[in-house]
Amino acid sequence: MHLLKYDFNYSRRAFLAKAGTLAGAGVLAPLWPLIARGADIGKAYPDELMSIEAWTKGKIKTGDVITAANVDVVKELLTPIAYRQIKEMGRRIRIVATTRDVSRLFPHDYFEATLRNAGKASFGADGNVYAPNGERWIGGNPFPDAKTPVEAYANLTLSWGRHNNAVYAVKDWDIGPDGKVNYQYDFVWFEENTCGRLGPGGAFGSYTGDGHKDKLRYQTVMFTGPSDVRGTAYLNTWYYDQRKFPELVGYVPAFKRVRKFPTNQRFEPLAPGLTFYLSDAWAAGDPMLIWGNYKLVERRPMLGAVSHNQVDDPNWELATHGGPEGKTFFEYDVELIPECLVVDAEPVGFPRAPLGRKRAWIDARNMMYIGYHTYDRRGELFKSFEPAYGLYEKKGVKDLTGKHTTWSWTSVMTHDIQNNRMSRFVQAKQIAGGYKSARNVEGMYDKYLTEQALGRMGA
């Protein structure tokens, strides 16, 4: 019998052949050299990885909606919890075309820095990432063609939002097992990197002083509504050394003071009803060397909401469906991602962590996670953290120079599958308190990212 070189199972055999090897992304050809040349990434993958119709042998095509009736056709392309949501809970997703222009999966300046600095990153003896001169990282993904699980996690950890800084105005709804909205919060999330900075000021920007040179980022979350939590705020100060725990302090209006919180606060909700923990952020909410036993489980195609997730709502809010009341899930557009790295890790630095393991599915094209699951200490599925991303074309939001459309996350659903509680939130245009989503804002550190700022905002 004659075996075709690129028959339907060619990609499966190719991914199996790469298992356990230091191979980069791509099946027919290396992916990142194609991206660097601006070539069509279809040259790196057979048709079955670039077309949902080819993958499913015509059973599913672009524009189709996946429901309980046809989800088994694409079961192996979904995370376990996403499959259960569709099969058992009334969720649906819509298929869109696979993104072939990888520049549409990044903020423009971050993409340019990734191309410019490719090959310059290395791990030091202490396990941290350094530039060639031994300084902190200089911008973009340090390992755009990650070959190991730790390289993949370095891409997630060193710059969460992939901008110098960002203000995310967040509207959150927390859904109970009965499908009703039990809580609704408005909160604002500020994050600022002290290194790997882009655009004017380059890698060093305004963060060269002694007070910042050992830091990676500052991050504050502050609740602006409803009234019973308004002013509650937390400040995360991250060290560049990924072996160190961040400093976590918070302001509670009832006590009118800032207090320090223990490290295990990272595994607790910031407000009643939330299923979102600080540890969940960007699938890399803790320093990467506080976790360990990293394992590259496999490389495989997946369905993920990485583009096209644009809405016409004036406040950037999404329609909902599914669950007992039709309010449990957001509407997501998903595409066939030709290659994802599936990475596991264990919380080795947390002796009393409630988790036993985490798993992230990371898109090989832009090294951003498209799905994230945590497991309890018994090894049972605990929570999912599922984001959606896109260029803000309909919203008309520009990036650093004002010349390019911004790219960012648009929404997240985090589902505690054991208690069937869902927290879903959007990056809104504006929330209670007048805070608006923005990128690369001047003066953010003094305004929002110090203990004094916490008390001032809370008051």
How would you characterize the overall build of this protein?
There is one protein chain. By secondary structure, the protein is α+β, with helices and mostly antiparallel strands. It has one domain: Clam (outer membrane lipoprotein receptor (LolB), chain A), CATH 2.50.20. 14% of the residues lie in helices and 31% in strands. The chain has nine helices and 20 strands. It has helices at 10-18, 31-36, 47-50, 52-55, 80-89, 108-116, 149-157, 444-448, 451-458, and strands spanning 65-66, 93-96, 122-123, 129-130, 165-175, 181-193, 215-225, 233-239, 247-252, 257-260, 292-304, 320-321, 329-330, 332-346, 355-363, 369-376, 381-391, 407-416, 421-428, 438-439. It has a 16-stranded mixed sheet that branches. A hairpin with a 4-residue loop joins strand 9 (247-252) and strand 10. It starts with 9 loop residues before the first helix and ends with a helix. Mean pLDDT is 92; it is low at 201-205.
